[in-house]
Specification:
The protein has 473 residues and is of the alpha/beta class. The protein contains nine helices and 39 strands. The strands form seven sheets. Strands 12, 13, 15, 16, 18, 19, 21, 22, 24, 25, 27 and 29 form a twelve-stranded parallel sheet that branches. Helix 1 crosses helix 4.
Amino acid sequence: MKKTAVVILAAGKGQRMRSQLPKVLHQLNGRPMLGYVAAAAEAAGVSQTLVVVGHGCEQVEAAFPQFNFALQQPQLGTGHALQCAMPQVAADCENVLVVCGDTPLLTAETLSALMHSFEQTGSTATVLSARVPNPYGYGRIVRNLNGEVRAIVEERDASEEEKRICEINTGAYCFEAASLREALQQLTTDNAQGEYYLTDVIGILAALGKTVTSYLCADAAETAGVNDRVQLANAAAELRRRKNRALMLSGVTIIDPDDTYIEDTVTVGQDTIIEPQTYLRGNTVIGANCHIGPFAEIENSSLADGCRAQRCLIIESEAAENCNIGPFAYLRPGTRLARKVKAGHFVEIKKSEVGEGSKVPHLSYIGDTTIGRDVNIGCGTITCNYDGKKKHRTVIADRAFIGSNTNLVAPVSVGEGALVAAGSTITEDVPDGALGVARGRQRNVLGYVARKAEEAAKKAAENAENKVENKQE
């Protein structure tokens, strides 16, 4: 196949989005809209990616620094956009694929088939078309008596007969680069919108006797553009369905695909079970034989094989094999759990390492801490890592035991095999094998309860006697 450049039209403002953000940067299932279009084209085998920008060009260029850009300013139509782009198309690219930046559902398979049809038919131009029951608003594919593509007529310029045509232009094309350059020079603004229509290129090439064909897309829904927030949500739902379906076919069990939200960049291993109301986002990697959810939210994190995470929030963290997280745990950025660690219910861990086999079972905060192997952290333990100005670290060595309701005031360390008595506030290091106790000595006041009861009864009797005397007076 000859070298092909893709030109992605992404200069429009997208007014119906009602947003300050350029339309092509709106997110769908973890990626900007433009990212899906570019990825599909690159997977189809293009050699160069060139994006035409206009409104919000700085934002688009910053989001995709790997692409080449052509500025369309002002925006005078799709034909003008391609005129702005062609000078930057590489000289060795003999073909040009043109797609719209707001069609995130287009697949690499469809674009590859379009390019293949273009070359197989020896065409000068091939239009990706689709058949729809209601073609209102779309450009119609107009053919001659031999069935060859003669023109694309926009809705505003179409005759009543042309408006009854149900084969529409999807906005994707493949062109012979040299012929495209010649045709672009002949564009005029003699139309209802006073713009340079890219669709007019088809009529110009046909009039010159060039071979113009169409490739019919099997699924018209794939070619739908996104113009408002409703269409954005519909497209995002379709992308989620595709992602969930691909995961299930690869060996992942998703209990309720319609209630599970897995972004496009996430990977999940075989035999993992994903419960409803699970959100997997960003560059998250879930291993094999895991059980995730229900109600788990995991972002830019990795969980190795055999992990369980339920009713939890995990952000920019790592868990090695067979960790048990939740319910209601919160792993904040910088958390690293070694094998077989338990981070139980209502546990928050931040920027800390927890060694193999250690347990933080419940109701604890661990921040800026290094915990060794086989350590047990008692219920209600807090590492006091912030003094109001700076963060400080706590170090708990292997096989230490931290009693319930303990405060570890950093910087502080607890030695190997050491014990900390429940209810202690530890401000000094505890040596290896030592017992750290930091609390007031217990004092038992004998007979206290009975004495207080006697005093209360006496006071009640005095109050009653006073009331009687007041009435007699």
